[in-house]
Amino acid sequence: MSFDDQLPPKTRLLRAAAELLANSDGSPVSTRQITKLAGVTAPTLYHHFGDKEGLFDAVVSAGFEEYVAGERDFAPSGEPLEDVRRMWDNHVKFGLTQPHLYLVMFGNIRPESRPSIVADAEALLEEMLNKAAIAGQINVPPREAARSILAANVGVTLMLIAEPLEDRSIELSTMTRDSMIFAVSTDTARGAATGDSGKSSVVVAAIALNAALQASHSDQLSSSELKLFLEWLHRISSSS
Amino acid sequence: MSFDDQLPPKTRLLRAAAELLANSDGSPVSTRQITKLAGVTAPTLYHHFGDKEGLFDAVVSAGFEEYVAGERDFAPSGEPLEDVRRMWDNHVKFGLTQPHLYLVMFGNIRPESRPSIVADAEALLEEMLNKAAIAGQINVPPREAARSILAANVGVTLMLIAEPLEDRSIELSTMTRDSMIFAVSTDTARGAATGDSGKSSVVVAAIALNAALQASHSDQLSSSELKLFLEWLHRISSSS
DNA sequence: TCACTTCATATAGCGTTGCTATAGGTGCTA
DNA sequence: TAGCACCTATAGCAACGCTATATGAAGTGA
């Protein structure tokens, strides 16, 4: 019943919590279950993690590293937008294979614990979108695009998790994914030879330049000059 | 301290629960708080609602009717896609003004309580998108479009709720909204005179016809004929 | 008018939850 | 050997959701 006695109690608590969290279909997991499975008593938990939430946070950071590893572990295809698609799919896959961990990570609403993880996930996406921006493939500043795409990605994943398994169609994901990417793409990135549809090319150019500058940490301008320059670019690329 | 004694205990319980739920910043609300504020004792709660969740469900249905009322209460503008935009904005507004109610309604993950509400919200959206489909303005079957848009809408709203109030920018919402609508729109609906970008016009026509048929309950075909006919149409309009 | 059923509320308490005040054991350094 | 962190256990508190049981009120038929 109990866990490997070789391991230190802290590790056993982490593993027990992760295991129970993974096998409890959404129902809450009690500290008593955890400590019993880990083979320790309550104060040990609170000594190491301070809190039930502290323990869960620790489990989550482990899970998050797994998530990040998944997001990073494919070689860039040279097609940034294609990589964004893969990040999206990977996000959904992570949510569906580890729904409970996902819910603790993204379904959690408390304005303290959530943002750090969301911000990290956003940063990953933004990094990739930055490459797309440099290539002149997107329509919107990378940060805004990342926030927007991530929001949709989380929404879709939550909806799929909440859906009974039998009629859980992955189409919802691919369609929403492509809609979001399509909407932030420039026409050239879409492969169509049609004219501009909305954004003028100067805006796209400003976005691309902005991204390129931030990526290369150019030394051609002083830092204060650069700051102002970037602000102007941002203003241009945010204008409708 | 207590509630209006004129009202029956059931109503007082509902109001007390709603009030506490609205003013508890995400922290859980106990049955004891509720019964104390309502001026009744525990068994009364369980007599009327069976369950804590039963009481919350009752509160939610009241809140949901408010939500639906908001979604219906503007006159159709004649521009279905514009109405979809308004439904989106109304959804976000509802979530931000009643975050706790919203979280119980849409942030809840249990695969039993959630779908009914989500399905209702989906139906509202689908109804509107059906009009757009009849007008040949959308690219995708209305049901799929509704699911997709709603998922993004929920994701954005949750993300805005989770965000600290000071840097809660509504841009995220409008941008994601327009991205989703843009992606499901046909070119004519976009106002651009460019050529087809992806979908062939026969697909759009099939989608429009399908929507029109389902809306009018045409009697020109027998029900079994109609069923098969609709299936073919669906197959056409789902083809990439 | 009186017994009888039905609905609604209260008293009191069960089992479980997250958490902790306190104390004891263990291994290290002096 | 003494002292000092560090870690763990015993025991128990307050709050939680919920319920077995009892009491009151209101309507119904004889």
UniProtKB/TrEMBL annotation, chains A, B:
<keyword id="KW-0238">DNA-binding</keyword>
<dbReference type="Pfam" id="PF00440">
    <property type="entry name" value="TetR_N"/>
</dbReference>
<dbReference type="InterPro" id="IPR023772">
    <property type="entry name" value="DNA-bd_HTH_TetR-type_CS"/>
</dbReference>
<feature type="DNA-binding region" description="H-T-H motif">
    <location>
        <begin position="30"/>
        <end position="49"/>
    </location>
</feature>
<protein>
    <submittedName>
        <fullName>TetR/AcrR family transcriptional regulator</fullName>
    </submittedName>
</protein>
<dbReference type="GO" id="GO:0003700">
    <property type="term" value="F:DNA-binding transcription factor activity"/>
</dbReference>
<dbReference type="InterPro" id="IPR001647">
    <property type="entry name" value="HTH_TetR"/>
</dbReference>
<dbReference type="GO" id="GO:0000976">
    <property type="term" value="F:transcription cis-regulatory region binding"/>
</dbReference>
<dbReference type="InterPro" id="IPR009057">
    <property type="entry name" value="Homeodomain-like_sf"/>
</dbReference>
<dbReference type="InterPro" id="IPR036271">
    <property type="entry name" value="Tet_transcr_reg_TetR-rel_C_sf"/>
</dbReference>
<feature type="domain" description="HTH tetR-type">
    <location>
        <begin position="7"/>
        <end position="67"/>
    </location>
</feature>
<dbReference type="InterPro" id="IPR050109">
    <property type="entry name" value="HTH-type_TetR-like_transc_reg"/>
</dbReference>
